[in-house]
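Ticket #4471: structure output looks truncated?

Reporter: J.K.
Steps to reproduce: submitted the chain below (147 residues) through the standard prediction queue, then opened the result file.
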Amino acid sequence: MLYGMTNPIPFFILFLSVSCSSQLQSENTDWPDRSFGQTVDSLPSSVWALFEDQNGHFWFGSNGQGVFHQHDSGITQYTVVDGLASNQIRGIKGDDQGRVLFDTPGGVSMFNSDRITTLMAKLPSESQWMLGENDLWFQGSGNINGT
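Returned output as attached by the reporter:
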């Protein structure tokens, strides 16, 4: 006996609802929960660098405690746990895109609203050294990742 289908629409709706329902998830379970930075009550006693960003917020670089960001809702501390190359901050600068860069003995780290990354130096040949209009220069520490 042949089983014929006179109306394929109910079958199609059932197929679509079953195949798509497993794709709906309210949150990504592959990524662990991660807090970024730590809220603190005060600034460190030893500040090596100070910078005011485009939003009028202040950044304080410390000797061994990372960087502190004073903003409208308080003070947030960022350390190597959050992605800094080192907790010793020698200088702080901002670029024309609103990013904040930190000069450390371990290299230059960049804050970009939701993460901190360490920049890797691309060393040009000697004939290519020149100062560009938007270039930022840091003190450096003599290693390949320090600038």
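Triage note (M.O.): checked the attachment and the full token line is present. The helical segments are 9-21.
Status: closed, working as intended.
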